[in-house]
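Dear colleague,

Thank you for sharing your sequence with our group. We've completed the structure prediction you requested, and as agreed, I am returning the results in plain text so they can be pasted directly into your records. Please verify that the sequence below matches your submission; if there's any discrepancy, let me know and we will rerun it promptly.
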Amino acid sequence: MNARDTIAPQFRPTTAELSLVWFCRIVAAYCLAFGMLYWIRLIGVYPGPEWRFDTMPLHWQAAAAALAVLYPFASIGLWMMASWGPVIWCVCAIIEVVMYAVFPELFGARPAVIASHGAVAAIYAGLRLAIWLQKRARAQ
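Please find the predicted structure tokens below.
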């Protein structure tokens, strides 16, 4: 037995694991941007007569305040690859899908936002499935 045999093997992440890390970080950057956009609306820098918090309709006040707080937290969690990051992103996505799909008369219809959340969820689920299948194959 030589020294090479006694050294523990190094962990080498798979392509799917590295892809998930980079994907989560890209989504984290977008979450931070969306959070900042909601904060811009809340403080009144956004153009328009009803885009300051005190002049917004009540339904926009509730949605904008919640998303302005949740999106930056989702960004942090996704960037750090914490288990709660995707959960908070999912809460943000559900809120926006409900806003734009269920209540378009209040918030307007934004099919691009709904489609982007669906695409992000599908890619994330696909990468997690690929990682799970790779780990299962390694275990057997």
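Summary note from our side: The two ends are 27 Å apart (CA to CA).

Kind regards,
the structure core
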